[in-house]
Design brief:
With 234 residues, the chain is of the alpha+beta class. 59% of the residues lie in helices and 17% in strands.
Amino acid sequence: MQEKLNSLIRYYEEERDRLIKLIDMYVLEKEFLSAHTHSIELSKVKDKLAMFNILKDDRFDQKEITETINKYENLVSSGCSDFHKYLYQEIIIRQKEALLDLTILSKNQNHENTVDTVLNMLVEKKLKCFSLILDTSERFSCEIKLQKKIFIITIPRINTLSKTFWFDEYKLSLLMNLGFNFYPNKNKLTVKLKQNDTHDLLPIKTLLSRLVFEVLGHNQFRESYIQYGHKVCR
């Protein structure tokens, strides 16, 4: 499974590089509409690449931001124009703020409440199920349980969510593309994942990551928490 993850990362890195070259070519040829279209696709590819890199290394975000800060600090010290120096310093300030946010988030997270740990508790039959609250404001959540080596992931309250401003037919189609089945009469979406290896959590972690990055958006995910039984783990 690790090799499959590495293959996905390589694929999206190649796709990212291909799109960057295409965008540069369209800009040079002043075909700005085509450049814009491909830049939207590039953004989606970068999101997926970030998702898989985070699955491989949970410190990927911090490392990437640190590299960006070092890059622009080197550009500032290389003797650029005042205009570019100002732009680079603004980027550095924003990146340092983002790095601080990630550092604070990492320090505030209790290891025993991480998704990895709770998934392992399911596998070890220490839990029957838990809920991952992904958006506290809209109460967007998914319930996860393991039955006979099959992970069952359910998104409840679909009828209520469909009345919110952000959950529309497009969001529903994204969830369907992830393998969810819609049960209107039961007011829920459900997907089942077979656990081929007792210790292999990558398939369900990949699904949850795609749910966060492709459907919800990672900024809202920072407001998430885990709930199981009558205990809420913030």
